[in-house]
Amino acid sequence: MTAKGWLTPTVIAVVALVLPLILRDPYPQHILIMILIWATLGTAWNLLGGYAGQVSFGHAAFFGLGAYSAGLLFFHLKISTWWGLLLGPLVATAVAVPIGLICFRLRGPYFALATLALGEIFRLVFTNWVSFTRGAQGILILSTFPTKVPYYYIALAIWGLAMFTLNRLINSKLGYYFVSIREDQDAAESLGIPTTRYKMYALLPSAFLAGLTGAFYMNYIAFIDPHVVFSLGDISVMVILVVMMGGVANPWGAPVGAAIYIALNEIFRAWLGSANVLAFGILVCLVILFLPNGVMGELGQIRRTAFRQKPAAAGGGQK
Amino acid sequence: MSFFKVKNIVKNFGGLTAVNKVSFTVEKGEIFGLIGPNGSGKTTIFNLINRFYPLTSGEIYFQGQRIDGLPTHKICELGIGRTFQVVKPLKRMSVLENVMAGAFLHTSNIARARARALEVLDFCALAHRKDMEAKSLTIADRKRLEIARALATEPKLLLLDETAAGLNPKEQEEAIAIIQKIRDAGITIIIVEHVMKIIMGISNRVLAINFGREIACGTPREIANHPEVIKAYLGEAYA
Amino acid sequence: MSLFGQTVICGILLGGMYALIAIGMTLIMGVMKIINLAHGALVMVGMYITYVCYKSWGLDPYLGMLIAMPALFLIGCLIQKYMINRLVEVDSILPENQVLLTVGIMLVLTEVARLIFKSDYRSVTTGYSSSTFFVGDMSISVPMTVGFFIAMAFTYLLHLFLTRTDLGRSIRATAQDRNAAVYMGVNAPRVTVITFGIGSALAAAGGSLLLPLFYLWPDIGHLFTAKAFIITILGGMGSTMGAIFGGLTLGIAESLGATYISMGYKDVVGLVIFLFVLLFIPGGFKSLTKR
């Protein structure tokens, strides 16, 4: 990278590190942590969906498995849920293997529907297998830290890990292969790319990071139940919307989308009360219709509209 | 041991027999042409070699090794590359990135893949477009990209599917030149074509098929004068 | 033994009504090739319209249905014309934008319903809501039976429409090969608008028939979307016969699951069957009957 290329990430890193010292109120700190959680989950999904083109409608399964790995460590074995940060991602990754082998035989909408069904099966199993999971009662733990600041830094580290992983993967042979598979799976096979294997190479880190996020969620929010962590609408579909709004196949798509989602949700909630979800739904429709590739994807178009410049020539685009 | 051998291959789609006991061999270094009217099964044969579709029955051998059970990517790894009749550019990648996707078959290093891709683009006279997004290319350039990408996988045998379709005469000349360059570089070629001037001009031997079945095999001159071939293309009156 | 018979019959009756909802979805999927995650929300809107007719004017749900259907037809046409059709020309990285637009529409419909009606469970109890009649010693619900026969009648009418009218044939042509249909003079955008309208109207009909049997609240849409998908995949995309088969299969499987396994796990049965069909019989029932 050039010297200029280092500037932005460094500035962001410095700002991120000092932010909780500037914003000392627990409420904005909570907002930041939620943004980081969604940015990480979104990055995890983006790797599989945005870059490799396998649009999963069931990522809540990995998130929930991570959360419950942490929670059940405490519930059954009285071990601290922080060990879930190790166990959660491993469980999620292990489960991802059979899920991938099953679902990668399908393409496009059929893949989406299969992952949707699997996510729902997990939710229903965790809801009904009460002896193992406490079912709808959920799992409640005591918070480890009295303030939010340590949680913030842990969330920041996790998000940093996610961004680093994404960066390393997409700037390697795997990255080229992922995008080739997304653009044309048949052409990719004919170029010697073992597409199922490489889809797994995208799925496993994706599941790992989603599980890690879930485990952290357990520790931070201190309460989980299947209805929340395995939720189709609030997690699986929402993460797709978040990344889509920010821009799929762009490393900053998930963080930008997460910031928009959390910030707007708070604003809508403050202004509109219970109509906030309606406002979000309208926003989703507008973004899809007018910014089909998300904020990062349409940045050029947004700049042109904002500054009333002439349209660019054909060519140029993003990987 | 022949370089490439296809033995009695059959493909049924439901009730339709698209390919009916076709056999042929291809010698190393030659350009082998495949002609036939539309719907005669030419692209299906390519799809069978490349295992886009599984064989209903028959055998395919490449350099003595049986390949008809292997998955598509493995067949490419062994050295068979192909282009598609309806081109499949990786649309949101640049021309260079498209070719790199092929080059990565033999290396995991980005710099080396890029270097190899640039070589291939030079070879195919496409280097001036290297940073253009594939979806912005003209049809002629897309066809050339298709070839370049396949070449980047370092094939020993290249299957070219109607690379000249839709090109104007000048572009066709350029396409012929590239194909001959590929042959001169030591790569064996099987080519499907409708443009007679091209396929008869450059092939060493030609197989003519109709309704999935072989009707004649020989040198271009033999094929051009073969009554069955004339009947298939021009009708009874001319046979 | 009569428990088994009763369970199966209950499954069939319920399944027939589910099928009506699914037929709307399979029609839409067959013609426009889009996954419509808002389908259940359309059912929910239809149910609320019928509910309002009942509460305000004492109109029986089977009559309120005749108001809900045209209303949903109109809503469906508007959605397709001004929102979904717009996406066809857009060039996005992932083709799933259409699906996500339906999610946005689903959110809007659900939240508008919640704003108006709150999240309270509502129900419609008519004179016959809990009536049953007996066949041997099996007890069979009256509203289920009436609903089933009305659903079958609608299905038959739809079948006549699709096979005997020009518009119906245009719809089937567009489903089979959109470009070819356009070359034959079919106005494809108009066909997609009408198809979405019809699919929505059928969703409203199915919902109204189920109103005496379900509690109504804004999120009930999700339940019906899931069921419609399972049935569509089971039956094969675009096939009305398949939707009937899928509906009956789902209804029976759910009914048996509820009786013999547990209420909680009954939905798992449907999902597992769904996955199995997706993986091993991708064309659904329709593809099996073509052999």
Briefly summarize what is shown.
Helix content of chain B is 37%, strand content 25%. By secondary structure, chain B is of the alpha/beta class. Chain B has a 6-stranded mixed beta sheet, sandwiched between helices. In chain B, strands 2-1-4-5 form a 4-stranded antiparallel beta sheet, with helices on one face.
SSE arrangement of chain C, N to C: HHHHEEHHHHHHHH
Task: Name the average pLDDT of chain B.
Answer: 90
Helix content of chain C: over 70%
Query: What strand line-up does the widest sheet of chain C have?
Result: 1-2
Order of helices and strands of chain B: EEEHEEHEHHHEHEHEEHH
Description:
The complex is a heterotrimer of chains A (319), B (239) and C (291). Chain A is an all-alpha fold. Helix content of chain A is 76%, strand content 1%. Chain A has 16 helices and 2 strands. The two termini of chain A are 18 Å apart. The model of chain A is unreliable at 312-319 (pLDDT under 50). The longest helix of chain B is centred in the C-terminal third of the chain and has 16 residues, at 169-184. Chain B starts with a strand and ends in a 5-residue tail after the last helix. By secondary structure, chain C is an all-alpha fold. The radius of gyration of chain C is 19 Å and the shape is globular. At the A-C interface, helix 5, helix 12 and helix 14 of A face helix 3, helix 4, helix 9 and helix 11 of C.
Write the layout of secondary structure elements.
The complex is a heterotrimer of chains A (319), B (239) and C (291).
Chain A: H1 3-22, H2 26-51, H3 60-77, H4 84-103, H5 108-128, H6 130-133, E1 139-140, H7 149-170, H8 173-183, H9 185-190, H10 195-221, E2 223-224, H11 226-229, H12 232-246, H13 253-272, H14 276-290, H15 294-297, H16 299-307
Antiparallel strand pairs in A: 1-2
Helix pairs in contact in A: 1-7, 2-7, 2-10, 2-12, 2-13, 3-4, 3-10, 4-10, 7-10, 8-10, 12-13, 13-14
Chain B: E1 4-13, E2 16-26, E3 31-35, H1 42-49, E4 57-62, E5 65-66, H2 72-78, E6 80-82, H3 95-103, H4 110-123, H5 139-152, E7 157-161, H6 169-184, E8 188-192, H7 196-202, E9 205-210, E10 213-218, H8 220-224, H9 227-234
Parallel strand pairs in B: 3-8, 3-9, 6-7, 7-8
Antiparallel strand pairs in B: 1-2, 1-4, 4-5, 9-10
Chain C: H1 2-32, H2 39-57, H3 61-87, H4 97-117, E1 132-135, E2 138-141, H5 142-164, H6 166-176, H7 178-183, H8 188-210, H9 220-235, H10 240-260, H11 266-280, H12 284-289
Antiparallel strand pairs in C: 1-2
Helix pairs in contact in C: 1-5, 1-6, 1-8, 1-9, 1-10, 2-3, 2-4, 2-8, 2-9, 3-4, 3-8, 5-6, 5-8, 6-8, 9-10, 9-11, 10-11
